[in-house]
Design goal:
Elements: E1 4-10, E2 16-21, H1 27-30, E3 36-42, H2 46-58, E4 71-80, E5 90-99
Antiparallel strand pairs: 1-2, 1-3, 4-5
């Protein structure tokens, strides 16, 4: 399998949605709907994805940044197409604090 990531991202905040690794990405990714962009990143493996997500979560401390009894940390990939420090854009991980569901839900 090739390590080329094809993805669609939200233009307003850069959050990466649909992803495809390999050649010949499907049209649902390469022809995104209004409000979404398409990009590809050669050399970006699934291991790279996991590393960015782990790093984003590692920056958040239980008990300091969130209450582990009622909240959890989730990480998502984001894309900055115009980052001047990266030719062709930058993919990065970002952590988000979410409420845990109630036991009654």
């Amino acid at each position: 399998m090739t390590d080329t990531l094809h993805f669609r991202y939200q233009k307003d905040d850069g959050r990466i949605g649909s992803r495809y690794w390999g050649e010949n990405a499907p049209e649902q990714i390469t022809d995104p709907p209004e409000g979404y962009g398409y990009a590809s990143e050669p050399g970006f493996s699934q291991d790279s994805r996991g590393e960015l997500l782990r790093e984003a979560k590692a920056d958040v401390e239980p008990g300091e940044d969130y209450d582990p009894d009622s909240e959890a940390v989730v990480a998502h990939l984001y894309y900055e197409p115009d980052d001047p420090d990266f030719e062709g854009g930058r993919i990065y991980g970002k952590a988000e604090i979410v409420d845990l569901p109630d036991d009654n839900d």
